[in-house]
Amino acid sequence: MTDIEEIIDLYAEIPSFHKDYTYLLNQLPQSLINDAWKHLITRKRIKLTNIEASYINSEIESFLKREIERYNRQKLQSSK
Hints:
mainly alpha
């Protein structure tokens, strides 16, 4: 792999969610944000490109909200 290909691969792994999702992303730890990004751009069905994943999309917003709900449930269960 050339240097430029490695740089492109590294850039692809950096989450670039639209700024309008900041209020949602602030509710998740960075590791889950990274996992959510990878999920959106690598899933088998309806895979998004990095560019598509960085736009406003109701599917992305719903996905992030589900991730927040799941994270909060796990946090609540672990605090009991």
